[in-house]
Write a structure and sequence with these properties.
Alkaline Phosphatase, subunit A; 3 domains; 13 helices; alpha+beta; Sulfatase-like hydrolase/transferase; 696 residues; Alkaline_phosphatase_core_sf; ten-stranded mixed β-sheet; PA14/GLEYA
Length: 696
């Protein structure tokens, strides 16, 4: 059976924890500037494959193989199962939100939903012009491409020139695919679907849907990815590449391919790009939307489920095809593949008949679907494959999230992560260097409706009104609350290792969990910032102070780094140790030892004299990022105009609050950092030394 197969051997509500630890040697310990990185050819190629609405239980290895053993309807993913057996399977990996747009925004920008500019159901909202996977890797010397579904272009405009956040305006060198969110609901762009018209599809800035007669998007996106990878290797074989392959399947409409998947794979087989009108790829066919995979054709199933199973199988074929291409190009050993999904399983068909994820238990051993913050809505199947670097056959149940991939890829590219990221590099966990992950898992989301009344779900979850929802992990436990009315609403608390179905609510069961309840309520106020377009009932609540630490001394701690960074960095991702550490009375740049290419991370506590609203204002010569607790209050980094004052306002409770300012200086201007505040009884002024402390 093997390690991976063992996952599926228990009952629906049971879980097996399997982990291994292998120390990887050869991960570079040096930190390089972006310009130096361009000369380093050892950085791995990176392919992130994102499926649309693929449930946690929709892979053979995560649940379908178990259903086969039990004699229940099941579908198969043989190639993805094999990939997982040669990789690490992350069994508690969480999306930013349980629906498409905010989930993808958190993935791309490396921030959770407490900081993302796309929240709730803000489909087609412009992704803010800040650091993201593409822009960071491009600065590190990567060639960057996206193939597939975007949906973050901005609601104004109707062309690549007028859309505010077209992919090529957000760090991608190349774009091929659907721009609008809704376009991905029709998988034949040149044809009308049951409930959808023809859709626009872009190659660069050219709209090409009229050339795509008989073309199925899952095949098209695989072929386009293969072409872009091959072209990258032909044109610039020494330059690493990053490909974001965002399939629009298996989300509805429940359309299937026109014909069997072409035999073979890679350079000579599988789907192939031809580029001719009405014969754009070799898998195009004049008869569309009628191919049911032979494994499902004769099953006694309603047709919508045969269609869904065939859609998933097509992705399985496509991933194997791309893997073969990497082998043919002799780059498989230096390519990291990450496979995942954007949220839990859907129950839409868009004109193809009744469909529910219960037929295959697409949520696996979990409860909840798309738009639920139960595990089934947020936890997604995730595989990371990097031959020779990620040990084979490993399963890890450490909680991690979509916002961790940006610092992970930055780590692999040899550049520090931006200071605004909420994530932490997964490289030590993936390679087996460490067993633990230092990141956070947090989500907030609002939507109407209820959790479905599926008999597979625990009775306490059925019909649960959604409304304002929030999830946080603390001390290894999941806190979740629904239909939130105030910051004092209690969390339900679950041990999702022993209880993946979230049946046993531990809240209030002991003094330990009573204490955890209060710490969860405080934690979620300390790690997020309000967004005026996605209001929450706790937006105006004062952030709780921390218990006054022992051994408090006046002044602020600092770490000084003499490094060049392409942006204001998260100093925990800098490979070098600080050149010097110490304390300063205030945020003083005179502690530096040179006038160019240095980073100072100030860290300590600010004493708030009275509960109320406080505004902080900052200006710098190049860049600075300010955090209070884990909340990003001021982001004067990407796009910052030097010398401009930027302000942030926050409600703070009387007492001590952790504060961190990361300052980055280059070589163009004289070092400068100014910080002021105002609040109850305080006119706008520099923060006095009597308010700043550090822990001795």
């Amino acid at each position: 059976m093997g390690l991976i197969g063992m996952i599926t051997s228990g009952l629906k509500k049971s879980w097996y924890v399997l982990a291994g630890m292998v120390l990887l040697s050869g991960i570079t310990a040096c930190q390089e500037s972006a310009s130096e990185k361009k000369e380093n050819k050892s950085s791995p190629n990176i392919i992130f494959i994102l499926t649309d609405d693929l449930g946690y239980g929709d892979l053979g290895i995560t649940f379908q193989n178990k259903r086969k053993e039990q004699g229940q309807p099941f579908h198969q993913t043989p190639n993805l199962d094999q990939l997982a057996n040669e990789s690490i399977l992350l069994t508690r990996h969480y999306v930013g939100a349980p629906v498409c747009a905010p989930s993808r925004a958190s993935l791309l920008q490396g921030v959770h939903q407490g900081h993302a500019n796309v929240r709730n159901n803000q489909f087609d909202k412009a992704l803010s012009d800040n650091h993201n996977l593409a822009s960071v890797l491009k600065a590190a010397g990567y060639r960057t491409g996206i193939v597939g579904k975007w949906g973050l272009q901005g609601r104004a405009g109707d062309s690549p020139e007028s859309w505010e956040a077209y992919p090529t305006k957000r760090g991608f060198d190349h774009f091929f695919g659907y721009v609008r969110h809704v376009d991905g609901h029709n998988h034949y762009p040149a044809h009308k679907a049951a409930d959808r018209p023809e859709m626009e599809l872009y190659s660069g800035s050219e709209e090409i849907s009229e050339q795509l007669r008989g073309v199925y998007t899952a095949d098209l996106f695989t072929a386009a990815s293969k072409k872009w990878i091959s072209d990258s290797q032909d044109q610039q074989p020494d330059q690493p590449f990053f490909l974001y392959l965002a399939y629009d399947t298996p989300h509805a409409g429940l359309q299937v391919a026109p014909s069997p998947y072409p035999e073979g794979g890679g350079l000579e087989g599988g789907v192939q790009w031809i580029g001719e009108k009405d014969h754009f790829i070799n898998a195009a066919d004049s008869t569309i939307d009628d191919y049911i995979h032979p494994d499902y054709r004769d099953q006694d199933w309603p047709m919508p489920y045969k269609r869904f199973a065939s859609m998933v199988r097509r992705i399985d074929n496509g991933v194997a095809d791309i893997q073969q291409l990497l082998k043919d190009l002799d780059i498989a050993q230096n390519t990291l593949i990450v496979f995942s999904s954007d949220n839990g399983p859907h129950r839409e068909s868009y004109g193809y008949g009744n469909f529910n994820p219960t037929f295959f238990d697409s949520f696996g051993p979990l409860d909840g679907i798309k738009r639920d913050t139960w595990e089934g809505g947020l936890r997604v199947p995730t595989i990371a494959h990097w031959p020779g670097h990620i040990p084979e056959g490993r399963v890890d149940n450490t909680p991690s999230g979509f916002h961790d991939w940006l610092p992970t890829f930055a780590d692999l590219a040899g550049v520090p992560a931006p200071a605004r990221t909420d994530g932490a590099s997964l490289v030590p966990l993936l390679t087996g260097e460490k067993e633990a992950h230092d990141g956070v898992v947090y989500s907030e989301y609002q939507v109407g409706g209820q959790t479905p009344n599926y008999e597979e779900f625990d009775s306490s979850h059925r019909g649960q009104r959604r409304g304002q929802m929030q999830v946080v992990y603390l001390d290894g436990y999941k806190g979740i609350r629904h239909n939130i009315q105030s910051a004092e609403d209690d969390f339900r608390i679950y041990d999702t290792i022993e209880d993946p179905g979230e049946e046993n609510n531990l809240a209030g069961s002991s003094p330990e969990f009573e204490d955890l309840q209060q710490r969860m309520k405080a934690k979620v106020l300390r790690m997020r910032r309000p967004d005026s377009t996605a209001k929450r009932p706790y937006d105006d609540v004062a952030v709780p102070a921390v218990d006054t630490p022992e051994n408090m001394e006046p002044g602020i701690s600092y770490d000084l780094y003499n490094v060049a960074a392409p942006w204001t960095p998260d100093v925990t991702s800098i490979k070098q140790k600080p050149l010097r550490s110490g304390t300063s009375k205030t945020f003083d740049l005179s502690i530096r030892n040179q006038n160019h290419d240095f980073i100072i991370a100030f860290d300590g506590f600010i004493k708030i004299p009275e509960t109320g609203s406080y505004s902080f204002s900052l200006s710098a010569d190049r860049g600075a990022v300010m955090h209070i607790h884990q909340a990003t209050l001021i982001d004067a980094d990407k796009g910052y105009e030097p010398g401009t004052e930027i302000s942030g306002t926050i409600q703070l409770e009387k007492g001590h609050h952790p504060v961190k300012i990361t300052y980055a200086h280059g070589s163009q201007r004289a070092p400068a950092l100014k910080l002021s505040w105002q609040g109850p009884g305080i006119e706008k002024e520099e923060i006095g030394v009597e308010y700043l402390y550090h822990k001795e």
